Amino acid sequence: MTALRAVALTCSLKPSPAPSSTELIAKQLLDELRGHGVDGESIRVVDHDVRPGVEKDMGDGDEWPSIREKILGADILVLASPTWVGHMSSVAQRVLERLDAELSETDDEGRPTMFGKVAVTAVVGNEDGAHKITADLFQALNDTGFTVPAQGGTYWNGEAMTPGDYIDLDSTPEAVASTNATLARNAAHLATLLQASPYPAK
């Protein structure tokens, strides 16, 4: 059995090095996963030229193929999005569209390429929408072939009509920290099981 690896796709609209609440919660999840022996890295998608489309390589300088290789090399995908007017960011939507190409990609035994990989989500925002975004992310990721663990989504919503972001908090709220810990524990457990006993081939 090989060591588990995670990759976090941070779908903030803010390019680096701007501070990002979405980046913060993604890194918190990676820290929690490290506590379970899972190494990982975070990629801020907006820093890369990810072209629109539903192919694994849209050509002409498209940088999605390099991100895709990171996903293929990982056991756990962390997909983190901010909330904008009640919806996931356009960057997160583009990631889902690009993952659609995996529906026609298979491994050596005929299984979709993302079978055996675990996906978890994180959503932050100072407005409503986290539950709806999480549901949409879960559905798309599961359709693509990822497996979602029990309580595989974490989120923070600020108080309604009140300014302030997750990154501005003095400390992580206890409920969020507890959810992050549960998410990481369950994700690592599930990834270990799937590595040891993959889904059956056709």
UniProtKB/TrEMBL annotation:
Gene3D superfamilies named in the record: 3.40.50.360
Pfam family, one: FMN_red
NADPH-dependent FMN reductase-like domain location: 6-150
A molecular function (GO) term: oxidoreductase activity
Protein name: Flavodoxin
Organism whose genome encodes this protein: Amycolatopsis albispora
